[in-house]
Specification:
The chain is α+β, with helices and mostly antiparallel strands and 506 residues long. It is built from 16 helices and 22 strands. The strands form five sheets. A seven-stranded mixed β-sheet has the order 4-3-2-1-5-7-6, sandwiched between helices. It has a five-stranded antiparallel β-sheet with strand order 8-9-12-11-10. The chain has a four-stranded antiparallel β-sheet with strand order 13-17-20-21, with no helix packed on it.
Protein backbone atom coordinates (compact mmCIF):
# COMPACT_ATOMS: atom_id res chain seq x y z
CA UNK A 1 0.00 0.00 0.00
CA UNK A 2 2.74 2.44 1.03
CA UNK A 3 4.74 1.83 -2.13
CA UNK A 4 1.61 2.13 -4.26
CA UNK A 5 0.76 5.61 -2.91
CA UNK A 6 4.33 6.83 -3.36
CA UNK A 7 4.36 5.63 -6.94
CA UNK A 8 0.97 7.21 -7.54
CA UNK A 9 2.22 10.57 -6.27
CA UNK A 10 5.50 10.28 -8.18
CA UNK A 11 3.67 9.54 -11.44
CA UNK A 12 1.21 12.37 -10.80
CA UNK A 13 4.04 14.84 -10.18
CA UNK A 14 5.72 13.70 -13.39
CA UNK A 15 2.51 13.96 -15.41
CA UNK A 16 1.82 17.45 -14.08
CA UNK A 17 5.49 18.47 -14.56
CA UNK A 18 5.70 19.76 -11.00
CA UNK A 19 9.46 19.57 -10.55
CA UNK A 20 12.49 19.79 -12.78
CA UNK A 21 15.57 17.69 -12.07
CA UNK A 22 17.18 18.56 -8.73
CA UNK A 23 14.72 21.39 -8.14
CA UNK A 24 14.41 22.09 -4.38
CA UNK A 25 11.09 22.36 -2.54
CA UNK A 26 9.67 24.36 0.35
CA UNK A 27 7.05 22.10 1.97
CA UNK A 28 4.29 23.51 4.17
CA UNK A 29 3.99 21.13 7.14
CA UNK A 30 1.43 21.55 9.91
CA UNK A 31 1.63 18.15 11.58
CA UNK A 32 -1.75 16.98 10.25
CA UNK A 33 -2.17 13.77 8.29
CA UNK A 34 -1.98 15.38 4.85
CA UNK A 35 1.16 17.43 5.45
CA UNK A 36 2.93 14.62 7.34
CA UNK A 37 2.23 12.33 4.40
CA UNK A 38 3.53 15.03 2.04
CA UNK A 39 6.77 15.36 4.02
CA UNK A 40 7.38 11.60 4.11
CA UNK A 41 6.50 10.96 0.47
CA UNK A 42 8.56 13.90 -0.83
CA UNK A 43 11.57 12.88 1.25
CA UNK A 44 11.46 9.40 -0.29
CA UNK A 45 10.67 10.49 -3.85
CA UNK A 46 13.53 12.99 -3.72
CA UNK A 47 15.78 10.31 -2.21
CA UNK A 48 16.31 12.26 1.00
CA UNK A 49 19.11 14.32 -0.53
CA UNK A 50 20.16 17.10 1.79
CA UNK A 51 19.12 20.52 0.58
CA UNK A 52 16.28 19.27 -1.62
CA UNK A 53 13.51 20.01 0.93
CA UNK A 54 12.97 22.85 3.38
CA UNK A 55 10.04 22.29 5.76
CA UNK A 56 8.13 25.35 6.97
CA UNK A 57 5.68 25.15 9.86
CA UNK A 58 3.40 28.15 10.50
CA UNK A 59 1.86 28.57 13.98
CA UNK A 60 -1.21 30.81 13.64
CA UNK A 61 -1.34 31.62 17.35
CA UNK A 62 -4.99 30.54 17.53
CA UNK A 63 -4.73 27.23 19.44
CA UNK A 64 -2.68 26.16 22.44
CA UNK A 65 -2.04 22.78 20.83
CA UNK A 66 -0.30 24.41 17.85
CA UNK A 67 3.01 24.80 19.73
CA UNK A 68 3.10 21.07 20.48
CA UNK A 69 2.25 20.26 16.86
CA UNK A 70 5.15 22.42 15.70
CA UNK A 71 7.49 20.49 18.00
CA UNK A 72 6.20 17.21 16.56
CA UNK A 73 7.00 18.52 13.07
CA UNK A 74 10.50 19.32 14.34
CA UNK A 75 10.89 15.70 15.45
CA UNK A 76 9.73 14.38 12.06
CA UNK A 77 12.18 16.63 10.25
CA UNK A 78 15.10 15.72 12.49
CA UNK A 79 14.41 12.02 11.88
CA UNK A 80 14.64 12.65 8.13
CA UNK A 81 17.49 15.19 8.27
CA UNK A 82 15.21 17.82 6.73
CA UNK A 83 15.85 21.45 7.74
CA UNK A 84 12.87 23.18 9.31
CA UNK A 85 11.76 26.73 9.87
CA UNK A 86 8.98 27.45 12.40
CA UNK A 87 7.20 30.79 12.07
CA UNK A 88 4.75 32.06 14.67
CA UNK A 89 2.20 34.72 13.79
CA UNK A 90 -0.72 36.53 15.39
CA UNK A 91 -3.36 35.64 12.82
CA UNK A 92 -6.23 37.03 14.91
CA UNK A 93 -4.59 40.46 14.98
CA UNK A 94 -3.98 40.32 11.23
CA UNK A 95 -7.63 39.41 10.59
CA UNK A 96 -8.90 42.18 12.84
CA UNK A 97 -6.60 44.78 11.30
CA UNK A 98 -7.59 43.87 7.74
CA UNK A 99 -11.28 43.28 8.40
CA UNK A 100 -11.17 39.69 7.12
CA UNK A 101 -11.87 36.27 8.62
CA UNK A 102 -9.20 34.40 10.57
CA UNK A 103 -9.46 31.64 7.94
CA UNK A 104 -8.59 34.08 5.14
CA UNK A 105 -5.88 35.78 7.22
CA UNK A 106 -4.35 32.39 8.02
CA UNK A 107 -4.18 31.45 4.36
CA UNK A 108 -2.66 34.83 3.49
CA UNK A 109 0.02 34.49 6.14
CA UNK A 110 0.82 30.85 5.31
CA UNK A 111 1.48 31.54 1.65
CA UNK A 112 3.37 34.75 2.41
CA UNK A 113 5.58 32.77 4.80
CA UNK A 114 6.16 29.97 2.29
CA UNK A 115 6.98 32.49 -0.41
CA UNK A 116 9.40 34.35 1.85
CA UNK A 117 11.25 31.16 2.69
CA UNK A 118 11.28 30.08 -0.95
CA UNK A 119 12.84 33.38 -2.00
CA UNK A 120 15.44 33.36 0.73
CA UNK A 121 16.02 29.96 2.31
CA UNK A 122 19.24 31.15 3.94
CA UNK A 123 17.49 32.91 6.79
CA UNK A 124 14.63 34.99 8.17
CA UNK A 125 13.61 37.84 8.01
CA UNK A 126 15.89 38.79 5.11
CA UNK A 127 13.88 36.55 2.82
CA UNK A 128 10.71 38.62 3.07
CA UNK A 129 10.24 40.89 0.12
CA UNK A 130 9.29 44.48 0.75
CA UNK A 131 5.54 44.04 0.35
CA UNK A 132 5.27 41.03 2.65
CA UNK A 133 7.58 42.68 5.15
CA UNK A 134 5.43 45.84 5.30
CA UNK A 135 2.09 44.04 5.42
CA UNK A 136 2.79 41.05 7.64
CA UNK A 137 5.89 41.67 9.73
CA UNK A 138 4.00 43.50 12.54
CA UNK A 139 2.14 40.28 13.32
CA UNK A 140 5.24 38.08 13.64
CA UNK A 141 5.97 37.20 17.26
CA UNK A 142 8.91 34.82 17.09
CA UNK A 143 10.75 32.89 14.46
CA UNK A 144 12.91 29.80 14.54
CA UNK A 145 15.47 30.26 11.80
CA UNK A 146 16.25 26.53 11.73
CA UNK A 147 19.04 25.33 9.51
CA UNK A 148 20.37 27.48 6.71
CA UNK A 149 20.91 26.28 3.15
CA UNK A 150 24.21 26.42 1.38
CA UNK A 151 23.11 28.59 -1.55
CA UNK A 152 20.46 31.07 -2.63
CA UNK A 153 17.88 29.75 -5.06
CA UNK A 154 14.22 29.83 -6.03
CA UNK A 155 12.19 26.97 -4.56
CA UNK A 156 8.90 25.33 -5.51
CA UNK A 157 6.30 25.47 -2.73
CA UNK A 158 4.55 22.16 -2.00
CA UNK A 159 1.28 22.17 -0.05
CA UNK A 160 -0.76 19.18 1.05
CA UNK A 161 -4.19 19.56 -0.57
CA UNK A 162 -5.74 16.22 -1.51
CA UNK A 163 -8.65 14.93 -3.63
CA UNK A 164 -11.14 15.53 -0.80
CA UNK A 165 -10.10 19.18 -0.68
CA UNK A 166 -10.79 19.43 -4.41
CA UNK A 167 -14.23 17.81 -3.98
CA UNK A 168 -15.07 20.17 -1.10
CA UNK A 169 -13.92 23.19 -3.15
CA UNK A 170 -15.97 22.14 -6.19
CA UNK A 171 -19.11 21.68 -4.10
CA UNK A 172 -18.51 24.92 -2.20
CA UNK A 173 -18.21 26.86 -5.47
CA UNK A 174 -21.20 25.04 -6.96
CA UNK A 175 -23.47 25.86 -4.03
CA UNK A 176 -22.31 29.47 -3.90
CA UNK A 177 -22.64 29.94 -7.67
CA UNK A 178 -19.90 29.49 -10.25
CA UNK A 179 -18.99 28.75 -13.86
CA UNK A 180 -16.73 26.15 -15.40
CA UNK A 181 -13.57 27.66 -13.92
CA UNK A 182 -14.96 27.36 -10.39
CA UNK A 183 -15.64 23.67 -10.99
CA UNK A 184 -11.97 23.06 -11.82
CA UNK A 185 -11.34 22.97 -8.06
CA UNK A 186 -7.81 23.35 -6.77
CA UNK A 187 -5.08 23.55 -9.44
CA UNK A 188 -2.32 20.95 -9.36
CA UNK A 189 0.16 23.76 -9.84
CA UNK A 190 0.01 27.53 -10.05
CA UNK A 191 3.10 29.69 -10.49
CA UNK A 192 5.63 28.13 -8.12
CA UNK A 193 3.03 26.30 -5.96
CA UNK A 194 2.59 22.53 -6.43
CA UNK A 195 0.12 20.09 -4.85
CA UNK A 196 1.51 16.53 -5.15
CA UNK A 197 -1.27 14.85 -3.11
CA UNK A 198 -4.24 16.01 -5.21
CA UNK A 199 -4.33 12.53 -6.73
CA UNK A 200 -4.92 10.91 -3.32
CA UNK A 201 -8.02 10.77 -1.15
CA UNK A 202 -7.88 11.49 2.56
CA UNK A 203 -8.64 7.82 3.23
CA UNK A 204 -5.65 6.72 1.12
CA UNK A 205 -3.40 9.14 2.99
CA UNK A 206 -4.44 7.86 6.41
CA UNK A 207 -4.00 4.23 5.29
CA UNK A 208 -0.51 5.10 4.03
CA UNK A 209 0.49 6.63 7.38
CA UNK A 210 -0.92 3.66 9.28
CA UNK A 211 1.02 1.23 7.09
CA UNK A 212 4.23 3.22 7.60
CA UNK A 213 3.67 3.53 11.34
CA UNK A 214 3.72 7.34 11.18
CA UNK A 215 1.62 9.31 13.65
CA UNK A 216 -0.01 12.66 12.94
CA UNK A 217 -1.72 15.45 14.83
CA UNK A 218 -5.44 16.22 14.67
CA UNK A 219 -6.57 19.83 14.58
CA UNK A 220 -9.69 19.81 16.74
CA UNK A 221 -11.16 22.75 14.80
CA UNK A 222 -11.44 20.46 11.76
CA UNK A 223 -13.90 18.32 13.72
CA UNK A 224 -16.31 21.21 14.30
CA UNK A 225 -19.03 22.43 11.93
CA UNK A 226 -18.09 26.09 12.35
CA UNK A 227 -16.70 26.46 8.83
CA UNK A 228 -18.73 25.82 5.67
CA UNK A 229 -16.08 23.46 4.30
CA UNK A 230 -16.28 21.35 7.44
CA UNK A 231 -20.05 20.97 7.02
CA UNK A 232 -19.55 19.89 3.40
CA UNK A 233 -16.90 17.41 4.55
CA UNK A 234 -18.77 15.97 7.52
CA UNK A 235 -22.26 15.78 6.06
CA UNK A 236 -22.52 16.12 2.27
CA UNK A 237 -19.39 14.22 1.15
CA UNK A 238 -19.78 11.63 3.88
CA UNK A 239 -23.35 10.92 2.76
CA UNK A 240 -22.24 10.81 -0.89
CA UNK A 241 -19.48 8.25 -0.23
CA UNK A 242 -21.46 6.13 2.25
CA UNK A 243 -24.88 6.11 0.58
CA UNK A 244 -24.42 6.94 -3.12
CA UNK A 245 -20.96 5.89 -4.37
CA UNK A 246 -17.87 5.10 -2.34
CA UNK A 247 -15.74 6.68 -5.07
CA UNK A 248 -17.69 9.95 -5.11
CA UNK A 249 -14.60 11.95 -4.11
CA UNK A 250 -12.44 10.40 -6.84
CA UNK A 251 -15.15 11.01 -9.43
CA UNK A 252 -15.48 14.67 -8.51
CA UNK A 253 -11.69 15.03 -8.62
CA UNK A 254 -11.54 13.34 -12.03
CA UNK A 255 -14.25 15.63 -13.38
CA UNK A 256 -12.35 18.60 -12.00
CA UNK A 257 -9.17 17.48 -13.75
CA UNK A 258 -11.04 17.15 -17.07
CA UNK A 259 -12.53 20.60 -16.63
CA UNK A 260 -9.04 22.03 -16.08
CA UNK A 261 -8.17 20.84 -19.60
CA UNK A 262 -11.45 22.16 -21.01
CA UNK A 263 -10.94 25.52 -19.30
CA UNK A 264 -7.48 25.77 -20.88
CA UNK A 265 -8.99 25.40 -24.37
CA UNK A 266 -11.79 27.85 -23.58
CA UNK A 267 -9.35 30.39 -22.15
CA UNK A 268 -7.34 30.41 -25.39
CA UNK A 269 -10.55 30.99 -27.36
CA UNK A 270 -11.63 33.73 -24.94
CA UNK A 271 -8.31 35.51 -25.35
CA UNK A 272 -8.71 35.49 -29.14
CA UNK A 273 -12.31 36.74 -28.90
CA UNK A 274 -11.35 39.45 -26.42
CA UNK A 275 -8.50 40.75 -28.58
CA UNK A 276 -10.81 40.75 -31.62
CA UNK A 277 -13.48 42.75 -29.74
CA UNK A 278 -11.02 45.16 -28.14
CA UNK A 279 -11.28 48.57 -29.75
CA UNK A 280 -8.79 50.34 -27.52
CA UNK A 281 -7.20 50.42 -24.12
CA UNK A 282 -8.09 53.71 -22.49
CA UNK A 283 -5.84 56.67 -23.17
CA UNK A 284 -7.07 58.18 -19.92
CA UNK A 285 -6.33 56.60 -16.56
CA UNK A 286 -10.00 56.22 -15.67
CA UNK A 287 -11.11 54.79 -19.04
CA UNK A 288 -9.92 51.22 -18.88
CA UNK A 289 -10.95 49.82 -22.26
CA UNK A 290 -13.51 49.86 -25.06
CA UNK A 291 -15.00 46.81 -26.77
CA UNK A 292 -16.95 46.60 -30.02
CA UNK A 293 -20.59 46.01 -29.09
CA UNK A 294 -21.27 44.80 -32.64
CA UNK A 295 -18.59 42.09 -32.44
CA UNK A 296 -19.74 41.13 -28.95
CA UNK A 297 -23.32 40.67 -30.12
CA UNK A 298 -22.12 38.47 -33.01
CA UNK A 299 -20.42 36.04 -30.62
CA UNK A 300 -22.13 32.86 -29.42
CA UNK A 301 -23.70 33.70 -25.99
CA UNK A 302 -21.28 31.69 -23.83
CA UNK A 303 -18.24 33.07 -25.66
CA UNK A 304 -19.64 36.59 -25.24
CA UNK A 305 -20.13 36.06 -21.50
CA UNK A 306 -16.54 34.90 -21.13
CA UNK A 307 -15.27 37.99 -22.99
CA UNK A 308 -17.33 40.25 -20.71
CA UNK A 309 -15.91 38.44 -17.70
CA UNK A 310 -12.35 38.88 -19.00
CA UNK A 311 -12.97 42.56 -19.77
CA UNK A 312 -14.01 43.12 -16.16
CA UNK A 313 -10.94 41.25 -14.91
CA UNK A 314 -8.66 43.35 -17.13
CA UNK A 315 -10.23 46.53 -15.72
CA UNK A 316 -10.47 45.54 -12.05
CA UNK A 317 -7.38 43.33 -11.83
CA UNK A 318 -9.47 40.64 -10.13
CA UNK A 319 -12.69 38.63 -10.47
CA UNK A 320 -13.49 39.00 -6.80
CA UNK A 321 -17.19 39.73 -6.13
CA UNK A 322 -18.12 39.42 -9.83
CA UNK A 323 -21.28 37.31 -10.00
CA UNK A 324 -23.45 35.75 -12.69
CA UNK A 325 -26.00 38.56 -12.32
CA UNK A 326 -23.31 41.11 -13.20
CA UNK A 327 -22.48 39.24 -16.43
CA UNK A 328 -26.18 39.09 -17.33
CA UNK A 329 -26.47 42.84 -16.68
CA UNK A 330 -23.48 43.44 -18.99
CA UNK A 331 -25.21 41.29 -21.62
CA UNK A 332 -28.34 43.46 -21.44
CA UNK A 333 -26.22 46.61 -21.55
CA UNK A 334 -24.37 45.36 -24.66
CA UNK A 335 -27.67 44.68 -26.40
CA UNK A 336 -29.07 48.09 -25.42
CA UNK A 337 -31.83 46.49 -23.33
CA UNK A 338 -30.91 48.13 -20.05
CA UNK A 339 -29.69 51.37 -18.52
CA UNK A 340 -26.88 53.14 -20.37
CA UNK A 341 -24.60 52.92 -17.33
CA UNK A 342 -23.91 49.98 -15.03
CA UNK A 343 -22.12 49.87 -11.67
CA UNK A 344 -19.95 46.79 -11.10
CA UNK A 345 -17.80 45.55 -8.18
CA UNK A 346 -14.34 47.01 -7.44
CA UNK A 347 -15.36 50.54 -8.49
CA UNK A 348 -15.78 49.61 -12.15
CA UNK A 349 -18.53 51.15 -14.26
CA UNK A 350 -19.62 50.14 -17.75
CA UNK A 351 -21.56 52.07 -20.37
CA UNK A 352 -22.75 51.62 -23.93
CA UNK A 353 -21.53 54.56 -26.01
CA UNK A 354 -22.74 54.17 -29.57
CA UNK A 355 -21.33 50.84 -30.66
CA UNK A 356 -18.70 50.68 -27.94
CA UNK A 357 -18.96 49.00 -24.56
CA UNK A 358 -16.68 50.98 -22.25
CA UNK A 359 -15.27 50.06 -18.84
CA UNK A 360 -14.38 52.95 -16.54
CA UNK A 361 -12.67 53.35 -13.17
CA UNK A 362 -14.50 56.27 -11.62
CA UNK A 363 -16.46 57.04 -8.47
CA UNK A 364 -18.82 59.50 -10.16
CA UNK A 365 -21.00 59.04 -13.22
CA UNK A 366 -19.32 58.22 -16.52
CA UNK A 367 -21.08 61.11 -18.23
CA UNK A 368 -19.60 63.61 -15.76
CA UNK A 369 -16.18 62.03 -16.17
CA UNK A 370 -16.40 62.37 -19.94
CA UNK A 371 -17.34 66.03 -19.66
CA UNK A 372 -14.40 66.60 -17.32
CA UNK A 373 -12.00 65.00 -19.80
CA UNK A 374 -13.21 67.07 -22.78
CA UNK A 375 -10.65 69.90 -22.76
CA UNK A 376 -11.72 72.59 -25.28
CA UNK A 377 -9.25 73.76 -27.93
CA UNK A 378 -9.59 76.94 -30.01
CA UNK A 379 -6.66 78.56 -31.88
CA UNK A 380 -6.30 80.68 -35.03
CA UNK A 381 -5.31 78.85 -38.21
CA UNK A 382 -3.02 80.39 -40.81
CA UNK A 383 -1.96 78.48 -43.90
CA UNK A 384 1.79 77.83 -43.86
CA UNK A 385 2.14 77.86 -40.05
CA UNK A 386 2.43 74.74 -37.92
CA UNK A 387 -0.01 74.49 -35.06
CA UNK A 388 0.80 72.33 -32.02
CA UNK A 389 -2.24 71.44 -29.91
CA UNK A 390 -0.85 69.74 -26.81
CA UNK A 391 -4.21 69.65 -25.05
CA UNK A 392 -5.87 67.75 -27.90
CA UNK A 393 -2.74 65.79 -28.79
CA UNK A 394 -2.49 67.03 -32.40
CA UNK A 395 0.07 68.70 -34.64
CA UNK A 396 -1.35 70.39 -37.77
CA UNK A 397 0.74 71.67 -40.69
CA UNK A 398 -0.32 73.23 -44.00
CA UNK A 399 0.95 74.68 -47.26
CA UNK A 400 -0.51 76.07 -50.47
CA UNK A 401 0.38 76.09 -54.15
CA UNK A 402 -1.09 77.19 -57.47
CA UNK A 403 -3.49 74.62 -58.82
CA UNK A 404 -1.91 72.39 -61.45
CA UNK A 405 -3.62 71.23 -64.60
CA UNK A 406 -3.56 67.64 -63.30
CA UNK A 407 -3.84 68.15 -59.56
CA UNK A 408 -3.29 65.26 -57.16
CA UNK A 409 -6.05 65.24 -54.56
CA UNK A 410 -5.11 63.38 -51.39
CA UNK A 411 -7.65 60.89 -50.12
CA UNK A 412 -5.76 60.06 -46.95
CA UNK A 413 -7.63 60.17 -43.65
CA UNK A 414 -5.46 62.86 -42.05
CA UNK A 415 -4.27 64.71 -45.16
CA UNK A 416 -6.78 66.78 -47.14
CA UNK A 417 -6.73 69.22 -50.05
CA UNK A 418 -9.02 72.26 -49.82
CA UNK A 419 -9.74 75.35 -51.91
CA UNK A 420 -7.32 77.87 -50.37
CA UNK A 421 -9.32 80.99 -51.18
CA UNK A 422 -12.32 79.67 -49.23
CA UNK A 423 -10.44 79.09 -46.00
CA UNK A 424 -7.74 81.77 -45.87
CA UNK A 425 -9.52 84.28 -43.61
CA UNK A 426 -11.08 83.95 -40.15
CA UNK A 427 -10.58 80.20 -39.81
CA UNK A 428 -9.83 78.45 -36.50
CA UNK A 429 -8.78 74.99 -35.32
CA UNK A 430 -10.93 73.97 -32.40
CA UNK A 431 -12.90 71.20 -30.79
CA UNK A 432 -16.48 70.61 -31.91
CA UNK A 433 -19.23 72.82 -30.51
CA UNK A 434 -23.04 72.61 -30.42
CA UNK A 435 -24.50 74.26 -33.52
CA UNK A 436 -21.63 73.32 -35.83
CA UNK A 437 -22.62 72.33 -39.37
CA UNK A 438 -21.09 71.40 -42.71
CA UNK A 439 -22.10 71.20 -46.36
CA UNK A 440 -22.53 67.56 -47.39
CA UNK A 441 -23.39 67.69 -51.12
CA UNK A 442 -22.90 69.80 -54.24
CA UNK A 443 -26.39 71.26 -53.92
CA UNK A 444 -25.29 72.95 -50.70
CA UNK A 445 -27.30 70.74 -48.33
CA UNK A 446 -26.29 71.33 -44.73
CA UNK A 447 -26.04 68.80 -41.90
CA UNK A 448 -25.35 69.38 -38.24
CA UNK A 449 -22.00 68.11 -37.03
CA UNK A 450 -23.79 66.27 -34.24
CA UNK A 451 -25.92 64.31 -36.74
CA UNK A 452 -22.87 63.54 -38.87
CA UNK A 453 -20.94 62.15 -35.87
CA UNK A 454 -23.94 60.08 -34.82
CA UNK A 455 -24.21 58.62 -38.33
CA UNK A 456 -20.49 57.82 -38.25
CA UNK A 457 -21.06 56.08 -34.90
CA UNK A 458 -18.54 58.24 -33.07
CA UNK A 459 -18.95 57.50 -29.33
CA UNK A 460 -20.37 60.28 -27.16
CA UNK A 461 -17.16 60.21 -25.12
CA UNK A 462 -15.15 61.20 -28.20
CA UNK A 463 -17.47 63.78 -29.81
CA UNK A 464 -16.38 66.57 -27.49
CA UNK A 465 -12.75 65.90 -28.46
CA UNK A 466 -13.27 65.88 -32.24
CA UNK A 467 -11.06 68.53 -33.87
CA UNK A 468 -12.50 70.71 -36.65
CA UNK A 469 -11.33 73.45 -39.01
CA UNK A 470 -14.12 76.03 -39.03
CA UNK A 471 -15.15 79.63 -39.56
CA UNK A 472 -17.62 80.48 -36.81
CA UNK A 473 -20.04 77.49 -36.84
CA UNK A 474 -19.32 76.59 -40.48
CA UNK A 475 -17.11 73.45 -40.47
CA UNK A 476 -14.69 72.94 -43.37
CA UNK A 477 -12.86 69.83 -42.13
CA UNK A 478 -13.62 67.24 -39.46
CA UNK A 479 -10.13 65.96 -38.68
CA UNK A 480 -9.93 62.22 -39.28
CA UNK A 481 -13.22 62.17 -41.20
CA UNK A 482 -14.23 64.39 -44.14
CA UNK A 483 -14.14 67.90 -45.59
CA UNK A 484 -17.14 69.96 -46.51
CA UNK A 485 -18.40 69.67 -50.05
CA UNK A 486 -18.10 73.46 -50.48
CA UNK A 487 -14.31 73.57 -49.95
CA UNK A 488 -13.38 70.71 -52.25
CA UNK A 489 -11.10 71.29 -55.27
CA UNK A 490 -13.10 72.13 -58.41
CA UNK A 491 -12.41 73.40 -61.92
CA UNK A 492 -12.69 76.97 -60.60
CA UNK A 493 -10.11 76.47 -57.83
CA UNK A 494 -7.00 78.63 -58.32
CA UNK A 495 -4.96 77.75 -55.23
CA UNK A 496 -4.78 74.43 -53.32
CA UNK A 497 -4.20 74.19 -49.58
CA UNK A 498 -2.87 70.85 -48.30
CA UNK A 499 -3.42 70.26 -44.59
CA UNK A 500 -1.90 67.43 -42.57
CA UNK A 501 -2.81 66.38 -39.04
CA UNK A 502 -0.84 63.91 -36.95
CA UNK A 503 -0.67 62.91 -33.34
CA UNK A 504 1.68 65.17 -31.42
CA UNK A 505 5.00 63.53 -30.59
CA UNK A 506 5.15 61.41 -33.73
Amino acid sequence: MAQTLREKVKNYMSRQEMLCDNEPVVAGISGGADSVCLLDVLSKILDGKRGRILAVCVDHGLRQAAAGEAEYVRTLCEERSIPLRILRWDVAACASDRGITTEEAGRLIRYASFEACAKSPEGYPGGLNKVIEENLRPYLRTADAGKAFDKETSYKIAVAHNANDTAETVLFHLFRGTGIKGLTGIPAKRDNIIRPLLCCTREEIERYLAAEGIEFCTDESNLEDVYTRNRIRHHILRTATEEINEKAVEHIAQMSEQLVLAEGVLEELTKEDYEDCLVSNGSKEVLSQSLSAVKLKNLQPYRRQRVLRKAFEESAGTLKDLEYDHIMALERLTEGRDAKELSLPCGIKACLDGERLEFWKTEGSILEEKKRQSVPVDVPFTVGEEVLLNEAGWKVSSEWHERKKEEYISGEQYTKCLDYDKIKVGVRLRTALPGDWLVIDRKGKKQSLRRYLINEKVPVSERGRVLVLAKEDHVFWIVGYRIGEDVKITDTTEKVCTIRAEKAGK
